[in-house]
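Figure 6 in text form: structure in, sequence out.
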């Protein structure tokens, strides 16, 4: 997933359903840093290793969604 601002690629994320191994995380970050300014890893099963600029696991995703819902009056 790549997030842009105009034509500038700000963030690139690799999203994975399962956990990351250390070698997978390092390889993904190496590829992502060639694509965008920031590189992030997202795993839906557990928090990925801290190799990129941002690592998000299920707990972090839940907290972000809850905060957004609270700000917009959904919760």
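Output sequence:
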């Amino acid at each position: 997933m790549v997030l842009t601002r105009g034509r500038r690629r700000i963030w690139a994320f690799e999203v994975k359903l399962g956990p990351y191994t250390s070698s997978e995380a390092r390889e993904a970050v190496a590829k992502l840093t060639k694509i965008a300014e920031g590189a992030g890893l997202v795993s839906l099963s557990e928090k990925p290793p801290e190799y990129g600029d941002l690592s998000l696991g299920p707990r972090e995703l839940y907290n972000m969604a809850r905060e957004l819902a609270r700000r917009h009056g959904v919760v």
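Caption detail: The chain has two helices and four strands.
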